[in-house]
Write a structure and sequence with these properties.
Among the domains are: about 45 residues; about 220 residues, 3-Layer(aba) Sandwich (Rossmann fold). With about 450 residues, it is α/β, with parallel strands linked by helices. Helix 10 links the parallel strand 10 and strand 11. Helices cover about 40% and strands about 15% of the residues. Helix 5 packs parallel to helix 6, helix 8 packs across helix 10 and helix 13 runs antiparallel to helix 16. The protein contains 16 helices and 13 strands. It starts with 5 loop residues before the first strand and ends with a helix. Bound molecules: pyridoxal-5'-phosphate (PLP) and zinc ion. Pyridoxal-5'-phosphate binds next to helix 10 and helix 14.
């Protein structure tokens, strides 16, 4: 299918592909240089962006608002559950905490990915774009390797597109993800090993059957959708934040932000990269460890390819369990160029953090979001956020993705046998207790 909208360009050698038909024909590998990394380049010079960014919330029904800058040719192929039409909210209690605890005056914005229409995670927009493009190209079978949230989102959207999906998950992936995928009739292979092993078997399976497979964190199917996050922040906040906080697994988020900013270069929305503060749980922190080592040694020769591999990570947040961080060479430079950091948070704190957040906001968050919030609290403590800066915390998921985690939230229940056992409850008094538990090390 010829298209006049965009080309895909090999990042390594510059080879051009006429959209996804040519890219799929070469099985998503550049025949010139073997790179799997292509980027979408649009024929249009983004003059239409101004109009899109002046739209009201009511006009934005999904991230497809930005159709003109997404690599789909016909709107007829859109597979959508209303994803990406989510608010950025100011969380004043976190601003008050930064002020009271550290004397800092910050705007703290939270991007509510739990409100995504598909599966309530920030994987929904990627799944929507992928399903739509695969449908446009008549693809019938697809292979996905994922720690859980991508798998679940892709399964749902591919079902709607009529595409059979083979999902390869690591042994520790959440039962809730597995069951949701099964509900849609998509196939799960629970690989008896970690995520790296799941990816390896998935790739062999795709090759054996001649099926297409997700192209990882740099896959334009994902990056191009996630880039619309930046457009939405500009539309809703009227600016970009100074600091960006996200839980880090493979790093599609920062890669997509960088792509959006390069697309916007030369327009009136030209902005520098917000300082990236990326967070890993301490039970699976390979990129944070590599970063700490690089900082300690003042970024010696080869620092960006020197990272540990954590085999079979024992983490309670399997969504973030990328123990072998193949994208570190890319992510580390995005972080360094933005003057950012890759930090750790103590995984044992996630229940306390999620309880405090839910108490203050009435929003129950999933474990990966609690990791992200824990990173924000650590960043305050470590002086990574300066007075007067605006901070955007990209929480990735609501708690529906992790019912086991929801059960661990129970802390106000008493077992009773008679009315005499039923003590009055001081809900107000909880505030201080929850805050203290969440922020103490
Ligand atoms: C809820 C949530 N937060 C954060 C991440 C990390 O995403 P990435 O590192 O690919 O940007 C994921 C990915 O699995 C996720 O599902
Ligand atoms: Zn190439």
């Amino acid at each position: 299918m010829k298209n006049n909208k965009f080309t895909l360009q090999c990042v390594k050698c510059g080879q051009e592909f006429d959209g996804f038909s040519e890219w799929f024909d070469v099985n998503q590998v550049c025949p010139q240089c073997n790179s799997k990394h292509v980027e979408a380049v649009y024929d249009d010079d983004l003059t239409g962006m101004k109009n899109l960014l002046q739209s009201s919330d009511e006009q934005v029904k999904s991230f497809w608002h930005y159709f003109d800058y997404l690599p789909l040719i016909s709107r007829d192929n859109i597979i959508s559950f209303g994803e990406g039409a989510i608010p950025v909210e100011r969380w004043k209690f976190l601003e008050a905490y930064a002020r009271d605890a550290y004397g800092l005056h910050n705007e703290v914005w939270v991007y509510r990915n739990d409100k995504n229409g598909g599966t309530g995670t920030f994987k929904d927009i990627g799944a929507s774009l992928a399903a739509s493009i695969l449908k446009e190209h008549g693809i019938k079978d697809y292979v996905v390797a994922s720690t859980g949230n991508t798998a679940t989102a892709f399964s749902r959207y591919m079902s709607k597109a009529g595409i059979s999906t083979y999902i390869f998950m690591p042994v520790d992936a959440l039962k809730a993800s597995e069951s949701e995928i099964n509900v849609y009739g998509q196939k799960v292979f629970r690989v008896q090993g970690d995520y790296a092993k799941a990816k390896e078997i998935a790739a062999s399976f795709a090759k054996k059957h001649g099926f297409l497979m997700t192209g990882g964190n740099v896959d334009p199917l994902r990056v191009e959708s996630k880039k619309t996050m930046v457009f939405e922040w500009l539309r809703q906040m009227g600016k970009l934040p100074d600091v960006y906080v996200q839980a880090l697994s493979g790093g599609t988020g920062p890669i997509a932000i960088d792509k959006a900013l390069r697309d916007l270069k030369g327009t009136e929305y030209d902005n520098p990269m917000p300082r990236q503060v990326l967070v890993q749980p301490d039970k699976c922190p390979p990129m944070a460890l590599a970063w700490e080592r690089a900082v300690q040694n003042n970024f010696p020769e080869g620092w960006d390819t020197n990272f540990p591999v954590i085999e079979n990570p024992q983490t309670r947040v399997p969504t973030l369990a990328t123990g072998k961080p193949g994208t570190y060479p890319l992510i580390s430079h995005l972080v360094k160029d933005s003057n950012g950091s890759i930090i750790q948070m103590k995984e044992e704190k996630i229940n306390d953090i999620a309880r405090w957040m839910a108490y203050e906001t009435s929003i129950a968050m999933g474990p990966a979001s609690a990791v992200c919030m824990g990173g924000f609290l650590n960043a305050l403590k470590q002086g990574l956020i300066k007075d007067g800066e605006s901070v955007l915390v990209n929480t990735g998921e609501g708690v529906t993705r992790a019912p086991e985690f929801m059960e661990e939230m129970i802390y106000v229940t008493d077992d009773v046998y008679s009315v005499d056992d039923c003590k009055l409850h001081d809900r107000k008094g909880l505030r201080e207790v929850l805050r203290r538990k969440a922020v103490e090390r």
